[in-house]
Amino acid sequence: MQDPNLLPDELRKKEEELEKRKVEIEPEKIKLSNPKERLIMNKDKNRFLNKIKSFFYKKSEKFKNEEIQDVVSKLKREEKFREKASFLASAPLQKMPDKKIEQKLTESAEQIKREKEDDQTSKGIEINLIPEEMRSFVKPVKQMKDLGKIFIGSVVVVVIFCVGLFFYKINIDDQLQNIQIQIKKIDKELINYSEFKEKDQLVQMRIKLTQKLIDNHIYWMDVLNFLEENTIKDIVYTNLNCNFDLSQNNDKAGTIAKISIEGVGKDFISIKNQLLIFQKATNFVKKVEISELLSTKERKKKKESKDIEGIGFKIDIELQPGILQHAY
Asked: Which of 226, 259, 249 is nearest to 322 (CA)?
């Protein structure tokens, strides 16, 4: 009994032609690409320059898993296509079991994982996913970036230092201005003090002069009172001169004063008695001398006291020091 053919007319004609030609449809060979090479070729070159190693590891693992899934889906699609082709050609096709495909894929994934772990555990060895033609370009760029960072950091430090100096200068200028203001105030106070000092010195000088005038004041009334009390009746005074010497003055001795008395006596005895009276007044008189005696004729020749008759005389009296500086 002939097998029923349920295929459509088009497929039936194609099946007949294939039987005539006896053409065996060979399964299409699928060329699997290496995930690592495909990852390197598809990635942008600039992306490798800006990513760090950990990022590359994560991305490579992610893309490897995606690549494996793509391969698995592609193999499944090709397997379905082979089943349809063998069914159409009614030729036995050797079907690759899914278990083997999964086994191979798991083996490749485990191998990639082992390689990654070996690379991470190995010391001094790093994974470099950058293409060889880009490595010569990456190093200068990295060096330039490092130099740029150093330059920017140095510029920032210099700017901060300059700003600090600027504010420090402003602070110093403010302090100098305050010091100058204080100096001006002190100068004004010194000027006022100097003026006050000059005034004080003038006042003190005036006080000293006043005190000196008071201390050296001569009480001439004491001389007149002394002569009035110690002059006898037969003596007449015609001239009186007083001199005092301040050059020999001191706080203890006082002013030295001298009196020169000119007069007329009745006779020599009266003049002698007057001299004795002056010599006895030791509390007022220190020294007494007669410097001149003139008779009546001699006096007339000199034209002295013509109206008074008698013997003329001149007595020099040196008073006690300081006797005229206080009331007698």
From this structure: 249
Q: Compute the average pLDDT of residues 1-9.
A: 56
Q: What pLDDT digit, counting tens, does each position of 97-133 carry? A: 566 666 766 777 777 767 766 665 554 444 555 555 5
Task: Return the ∠ at Cα 192 (arms to 189 and 193), rounded to 5°.
Answer: 85
| pLDDT tens digit sequence for 144-157 | 778 888 889 889 99
DSSP letter for each residue of 216-281? T---HHHHHHHHHHT--TTEEEEEEEEEEESTT--TTT--EEEEEEEEEESSHHHHHHHHHHHHH-
- Residue 186: partners with Cβ closer than 8 Å, 6 or more residues away: none
Question: Do the strands 256-265 and 235-245 form a parallel or antiparallel pair, or are they unpaired?
Answer: antiparallel
253 in any annotated domain: yes
Is residue 177 one of the residues assigned to a domain? no
- Residue 226 sits at the vertex; the CA angle it makes with 223 and 228, to the nearest 5 degrees, is 110
**What is the mean predicted confidence (pLDDT) over 46-60?**
53
262: CB partners within 8 A, 6+ apart:
237, 238, 239, 240, 292, 312, 313, 314
Angle formed by the axes of helices 9-21 and 53-89, nearest 10°: 90
What whole-number distance in Å separates Cα of residue 81 and Cα of residue 137?
A: 47
Q: Other C-beta atoms within 10 Å of 200: how many?
A: 11
Is the Cβ–Cβ distance between 255 and 213 less than 8 Å?
no
Whole-number Å distance between alpha carbons of 77 and 101 = 13
| 300 found inside a domain | yes
| Residue matched to tokens 């002013």 | 255
Q: Identify the domain containing residue 48 by its residue range.
A: 9-129
Query: Domain count of the chain?
Result: 2
